[in-house]
Design a protein that fits this description.
Layout lengths: L6 E5 L3 H12 L3 E5 L11 E3 L5 E3 L4 E2 L4 H9 L4 E3 L5 E5 L7 E4 L8 E3 L3 H10 L6 E2 L3 E6 L5 E6 L5 E6 L1 E4 L3 H7 L1 E3 L4 H8 L9 E7 L13 E3 L4 E6 L8 E7 L8 H16 L8 E6 L28 E2 L4 E3 L12 H16 L1
Parallel strand pairs: 1-2, 1-14, 2-10, 7-17, 11-15, 14-22
Antiparallel strand pairs: 3-4, 5-9, 6-9, 7-8, 11-12, 12-13, 16-19, 16-20, 17-18, 18-19, 21-22
Helix pairs in contact: 1-3, 1-7, 2-7
The structure holds flavin-adenine dinucleotide.
Amino acid sequence: MAEQKQKVLIIGAGLCGLTLARKLQRSGYEAKILEARKRTGGRIETINTADGTPIEMGATWLGAKHTALTALLEELEIGITEQYLSDRAIYEPLSTSPPQLVQLPANDAPSYRIEGGSSRLIKTLEGALLPESIIYANRVTALDFTASQVEMKTSTSNRQEASYTADIVVSTLPPRLVSQTINIEPVLPADFVAIAMQTHTWMGESIKFGFSFAEPFWRSEQLSGTLVSNVGPVNEMYDHSRDAEGRFGLKGFLSGAYARLPQNERRELITRQLKKYYGDKMDDFLSYEDRVWSQEPYTYKPSKIGLMPHQNNGNPVYRQAFQEGRFYIAGSETASQFPGYMDGAVRSANWVFDQIAS
Ligand SMILES: Cc1cc2nc3c(=O)[nH]c(=O)nc-3n(C[C@H](O)[C@H](O)[C@H](O)COP(=O)(O)OP(=O)(O)OC[C@H]3O[C@@H](n4cnc5c(N)ncnc54)[C@H](O)[C@@H]3O)c2cc1C
């Protein structure tokens, strides 16, 4: 008789959860994902603006060093393209001096973007799963490990509750959310919880914005789509065009301090700054989008104490199973290499798979 493989419930349909579910299903495990949002991808989301320009609201860039991610992309036959930077950038060192156009040094470690957008990776992984593998809009609220089968409780936005059982549960939430939002029985060790609560969620405080335009006017002689500003409110910006598709855009990061402003006021602030370099051409934008990640409850909850970027990311405390081998706390921030990044999410999925399958 064929060996009965374990039933694994995965919390979260981001890059880590989807990569793990695909690996488990391919090896004959019964794997399902519970996802709080109505969409997959978590911190990866390529949105299509009203004029059809795709803009990344979350993860965008990868490098050759991200070998776990590049191996997955190759396996899925998804290409990458080099980020267009040009050889110059607008640099604004001080509010008291005008912006400068500076020459960029040769880049021997270029950044790449996923062809078709980062969500293409998510959709491809999702499409590789068995039908009905993902249960959407179901927030995991409780895990009970006191019986032989793990019991999971979920809740929808209109408070409809459901329960599921499994042999093994894998969380792929940013670690702080595990401690802050899921009721776990028996409680996890206090020293572990202390570290989880002080694990920074990469980019959790960030605001990303994007404009689309009919023409890439910033590519003219005396300009650049690359911006580094110590003055702000935009600190960093890049050309976000897809030349092959005739779509042009600028995308950057706005200081997290503007999270509470209404979206139109954020747009006004950004436009005012960018007009310093581009003049009235900024008014010709076709669409504006932004995403305040600190207001996404399934990514971020405020911390009572300030955390340094990447604090406790990759802490070895995450390289163990809890609840007598029935609970893993995975996700990008737990990876031993490149924690916080897409590569970390894939590495974490690979590590948990090896533990379960060994
Ligand atoms: C603005 C921004 C820019 C970034 N830029 C880059 C970049 O350029 N390059 C790079 O490599 N990385 C970048 N990152 C980081 C990258 O997005 C993450 O490392 C990666 O996507 C994390 O994947 P994950 O699956 O580990 O976690 P997540 O994507 O956070 O997935 C966790 C999933 O769990 C779900 N969830 C949460 N709570 C519950 C619950 N109670 N029940 C059920 N489901 C739940 C969430 O909805 C989510 O789908 C960026 C992130 C952001 C926000």
